[in-house]
């Protein structure tokens, strides 16, 4: 059974005769202890506070039966690990599609304009979790409502844990797609027509951060932590 916040993605799953429904990862409408296993891939890094990220892990644990396991993947701050570049960095020079990307520079945007529905309570982080992350040598400062986030340059190393990542919508007529091969200024009218740019919020995790968050919950046990192609991964077991 799959779930996603996007109705369009869920519709695609249904067209393929898969069981899927729309929901929020912070509140999954399924019975507690009803799952043998849960998978969360590239989801938790989109939540804007440590409190929300921890709550999402707790919700995964709630769904698991005792002895059940969960696999979590999040984007890593370390895109170069043990002298090896991730696939994300390597594709910068190897993909023709990336030659068409429009550089967005390092413009700054207010977080409050990008993450709707934030409250002062949402901005509060768990003091214990922050201390655990500091012990791991990770800068885990919460993002305040007045913070400004850098816009990441695609296929480059991360300069900040909290940032906006450009997502270029590809499409249109064949003629437009051919024209899109020409590098255009990001703020030009032509570039907006050919390749609309959307900015998605990310919190990229540094080494030990995801594991520390999981270990702060007394209902799970961390079985394994590993690095995989620019992602930090944890396998945990429900106690």
Automatic annotation (TrEMBL):
<feature type="domain" description="Methyltransferase type 11">
    <location>
        <begin position="1"/>
        <end position="72"/>
    </location>
</feature>
<dbReference type="GO" id="GO:0106335">
    <property type="term" value="F:tRNA (5-carboxymethyluridine(34)-5-O)-methyltransferase activity"/>
</dbReference>
<dbReference type="InterPro" id="IPR051422">
    <property type="entry name" value="AlkB_tRNA_MeTrf/Diox"/>
</dbReference>
<feature type="region of interest" description="Disordered">
    <location>
        <begin position="90"/>
        <end position="124"/>
    </location>
</feature>
<dbReference type="InterPro" id="IPR013216">
    <property type="entry name" value="Methyltransf_11"/>
</dbReference>
<dbReference type="GO" id="GO:0030488">
    <property type="term" value="P:tRNA methylation"/>
</dbReference>
<keyword id="KW-0489">Methyltransferase</keyword>
<dbReference type="GO" id="GO:0005737">
    <property type="term" value="C:cytoplasm"/>
</dbReference>
<dbReference type="GO" id="GO:0005634">
    <property type="term" value="C:nucleus"/>
</dbReference>
<feature type="compositionally biased region" description="Basic and acidic residues">
    <location>
        <begin position="90"/>
        <end position="102"/>
    </location>
</feature>
<dbReference type="GO" id="GO:0000049">
    <property type="term" value="F:tRNA binding"/>
</dbReference>
<dbReference type="InterPro" id="IPR029063">
    <property type="entry name" value="SAM-dependent_MTases_sf"/>
</dbReference>
<dbReference type="GO" id="GO:0002098">
    <property type="term" value="P:tRNA wobble uridine modification"/>
</dbReference>
<dbReference type="Pfam" id="PF08241">
    <property type="entry name" value="Methyltransf_11"/>
</dbReference>
<protein>
    <submittedName>
        <fullName>ALKB8 protein</fullName>
    </submittedName>
</protein>
<dbReference type="GO" id="GO:0008757">
    <property type="term" value="F:S-adenosylmethionine-dependent methyltransferase activity"/>
</dbReference>
<keyword id="KW-0808">Transferase</keyword>
């Amino acid at each position: 059974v799959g779930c996603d916040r996007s109705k369009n993605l869920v519709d695609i799953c249904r067209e393929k005769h898969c069981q899927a429904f729309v929901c929020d990862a912070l509140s999954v409408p399924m019975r507690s202890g009803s799952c043998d296993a849960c998978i969360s891939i590239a989801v938790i890094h989109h939540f804007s506070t440590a409190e929300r990220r921890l709550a999402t892990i707790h919700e995964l644990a709630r769904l698991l039966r005792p002895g059940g396991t969960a696999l979590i993947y999040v984007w890593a701050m370390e895109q170069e690990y043990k002298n090896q570049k991730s696939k994300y960095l390597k594709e910068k020079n190897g993909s023709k599609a990336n030659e068409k990307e429009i550089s967005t520079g390092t413009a700054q945007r207010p977080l409050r304009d990008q993450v709707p529905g934030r409250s002062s309570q949402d901005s509060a982080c768990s003091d214990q979790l922050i201390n655990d992350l500091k012990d791991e040598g990770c800068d885990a400062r919460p993002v305040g409502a007045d913070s400004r986030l850098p816009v990441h340059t695609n296929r480059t190393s991360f300069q900040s844990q909290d940032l906006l990542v450009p997502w270029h919508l590809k499409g249109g007529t064949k003629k437009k797609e051919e024209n899109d091969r020409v590098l255009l200024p990001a703020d030009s009218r032509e570039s907006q027509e050919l390749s609309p740019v959307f900015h998605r919020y990310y919190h990229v995790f540094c080494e030990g951060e995801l594991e520390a968050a999981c270990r702060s919950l007394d209902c799970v046990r961390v079985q394994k932590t590993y690095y995989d192609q620019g992602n930090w991964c944890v396998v945990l077991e429900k106690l």
